Amino acid sequence: MSLKYWSVWVLALWVLVAIVASLVDFQPNQIHLDLILAKPSFGQLLGFDDLGREILPRLLAGAQVSLLVVALVTIITASVGIMLGMVSGYYGGWVDRTLMQITDVFLAFPGILLAIAFAAVLGAGLSNLILALCITSWVGYARLTRAQVLSLRQRQHVMAAESLGASTLRIMLKHMLPLLAAPLLVEATYSMAGLVIAEASLSFLGLGIQAPNASWGAMLRDGVRYMLIAPHYVLAVGLSLMTLVLAVNVLGDRLRDYLDIHG
Question: How far apart are the first and last CA of the chain?
Answer without folding.
Answer: 31
